[in-house]
From TrEMBL:
<dbReference type="GO" id="GO:0003824">
    <property type="term" value="F:catalytic activity"/>
</dbReference>
<dbReference type="InterPro" id="IPR000120">
    <property type="entry name" value="Amidase"/>
</dbReference>
<protein>
    <submittedName>
        <fullName>Glutamyl-tRNA(Gln) amidotransferase</fullName>
    </submittedName>
</protein>
<dbReference type="Pfam" id="PF01425">
    <property type="entry name" value="Amidase"/>
</dbReference>
<dbReference type="InterPro" id="IPR023631">
    <property type="entry name" value="Amidase_dom"/>
</dbReference>
<dbReference type="InterPro" id="IPR036928">
    <property type="entry name" value="AS_sf"/>
</dbReference>
<feature type="domain" description="Amidase">
    <location>
        <begin position="27"/>
        <end position="443"/>
    </location>
</feature>
Length: 543
């Protein structure tokens, strides 16, 4: 096997090679480290590589081959997971060089199963879905292996780029509103956001306690099933985890999809699907029908904007709570887009946050009711393929154009999977969504699609002759701020003890302007926002 072949083996394929003696864990890990050294300078997927630790773990795992499915398999984790022996920075300036001294629950479980940690992966600042506007975090954001001048999604950028490029067999990411599934879609991968409460988040930097979920990114549904098996289970250190029976996810894959009733959400009001995305969704539905599933038309019970705005209000408040200490201690050390979000987040009233939680419960019940007549749903992950960094408007539209927040809000398991490619060779994606703790059904469907749409899993071709300096700079111009708005924003923020410099005031004004534009659809927008926004509307010069 070539290095490329070795580094694109799935977990089950690698363990078969271990068993028949054609490959050893040390060889797989050595090939992975060599590939990281050659290719990652083009992609910036890794923040830190632990070659000595990986080699040591591979030697230890060689004696355990056959004991567990993950023994000897190299993996990497998003840099918001605590690791006992590597820095955990979440790509935040205030956390540079921090070593947690312990492993996150998920990392500990994978290491205990014989997994070989190769390093920590790029993320947007603090592991949030923020940072695409300025790209001013401590370290570069990862690039898309399918086209390095294109956007890889976020915030689990490094997790997706590394797995797609063969720099890790699988990776762990985190997902608050789509941060596993959007990068998986952009990079042609499987990305699973499990049911809220199935996996422990202990040791993962929080952003939104009631929305944050961790999960795997991999090149197949089978690999996701194997990793999920190792991670699932209650953990008293994460009070959100639920003590539920955990099935054998890999064994369930063989059950197929015959007899399942699957709801196809083809029409999403307000969304325009790229032709290739729509074609991929149709191909997915047709393949499932050929395997014996019944495909029925389905629809989201509420407009997409309702889910997004409720999610934004909840996550904005919880994010501000999670990072308020850093924000108040040294706001200049925080990137502009994150700082903007924290500034607006700390002014959300408790009554409005609680109203959003109530609305969330209503929206979640509406989604759950769909599973009374369907075993699962299928719908687009993103409305377009990965855009070029040369088109800032397309990058913003890509981040806004997805269905992922719906199921972050409801808490249902949602799995992004590749469905094909557009004319430029960029991956298309769809989501499979199941009932609460219905990961086995979701993975069965995803596995059936893997078998039927094999071409959707082809590898990216990475041109090692490319000079990274020729890539377009990853920076976007901010949306304009009306003259004087930053003056009003600065005065308003100071009423709440938020000192802002001129740049921060402009960013805060930008956030308030966006809130005003969407205010009619937000359930009970904060009266604090109303006061500032009224100032902008009545006195555009802030006087």
């Amino acid at each position: 096997m070539t290095e490329d072949d070795i580094c694109h083996l799935g977990i089950a394929e690698a363990r078969r090679a271990f068993a028949d003696g054609t490959l050893a864990p040390e060889e797989l890990v050595e090939a992975t480290l060599a590939r990281i050294a050659r290719i990652d300078p083009l992609l910036d997927a890794y923040i830190a590589v632990d070659a000595p630790g990986a080699r040591r773990a591979a030697r230890e795992a060689a004696a355990r081959v056959g004991e567990t499915p993950l023994a000897g398999i190299p993996f990497a984790v998003k840099d918001n997971y605590a690791t006992r022996d590597l820095p955990t920075t979440a790509n935040a300036r205030r956390l540079q060089g921090m070593i947690a001294g312990f492993d996150a629950a998920a990392v500990a479980r994978l290491r205990a199963a014989g997994g070989v940690l190769t390093g920590k992966l790029a993320t947007w600042e603090y592991g949030t879905g923020l940072g695409v506007q300025f790209h001013d975090a401590a370290r570069p954001h990862a690039r898309n292996p399918w086209a390095p001048d294109h956007f890889p999604g976020g915030s689990s950028t490094g997790s997706a780029a590394a797995v797609a490029a063969g720099l890790a067999t699988y990776a762990l990411g985190s997902d608050t509103g789509g941060s596993i599934r959007v990068p998986a879609a952009a990079c042609g991968l499987h990305g699973l956001k499990p049911t809220y409460g199935l996996l422990s988040r202990y040791g993962v930097l929080p952003n939104s306690w009631s929305l944050d979920v961790i999960g795997p990114l991999a090149r197949s549904a089978r690999d996701c099933a194997i990793v999920l098996q190792a991670l699932a289970g209650v953990d008293p250190r994460d009070p959100a985890t639920v003590d539920v029976s955990v099935p054998d996810y890999e064994a369930a894959l063989s059950e197929g999809v015959a007899g399942l009733r699957i709801g196809l959400v083809r029409e999403i009001p307000g969304a325009t699907l790229a032709p290739a995305v729509a074609a991929g969704l149709d191909a997915l539905a047709a393949s499932l029908a050929e395997e014996g599933a019944t495909i029925v038309e389905a629809a989201l019970p509420e407009p997409l904007a309702r889910y997004r705005e409720t999610t934004t209000l909840i996550s904005g408040s919880e994010r501000a709570c999670a990072h308020e200490a850093d924000f108040r201690a040294d706001p200049a050390a925080i990137g502009r887009e994150v700082r903007e979000a924290l500034t607006t987040g700390v002014t959300i009233r408790a009554v409005d946050y609680l109203a959003a939680l109530r609305r969330r419960a209503e929206l979640a019940r509406g989604i759950d009711a769909l599973f009374e007549r369907c075993d699962a749903l299928i719908l687009p992950t993103t409305f377009a393929t990965a855009p070029s960094y040369r088109d800032p408007d397309a990058v913003r539209a890509f981040m806004a154009g997805s269905t992922t927040a719906v199921f972050s809000l409801s808490g249902h398991p949602a799995h992004a999977l590749p469905t094909g490619f557009d004319a430029a060779g960029l991956p298309t994606s769809a989501q499979v969504v199941g009932p609460y703790f219905g990961e086995a059904v979701v993975l069965r469907i995803a596995h059936a699609v893997d078998l039927a749409l094999a071409d959707a899993r082809r590898r990216p071709r990475i041109d090692l002759g490319t000079d990274p300096r020729t890539y377009p700079p990853i920076t976007l111009e901010p949306e304009p701020v009306a003259p004087g708005d930053e003056v009003a924003a600065e005065g308003f923020a100071r009423l709440h003890g938020l000192p802002l410099d001129a740049i921060a005031a402009a960013d805060y004004a930008r956030g308030l302007t966006r809130s005003a534009a969407a205010g009619a659809a937000v359930p009970r927008p904060s009266s604090l926002f109303d006061g500032a926004i009224a100032t902008f509307r009545v006195s555009p010069r802030g006087q």
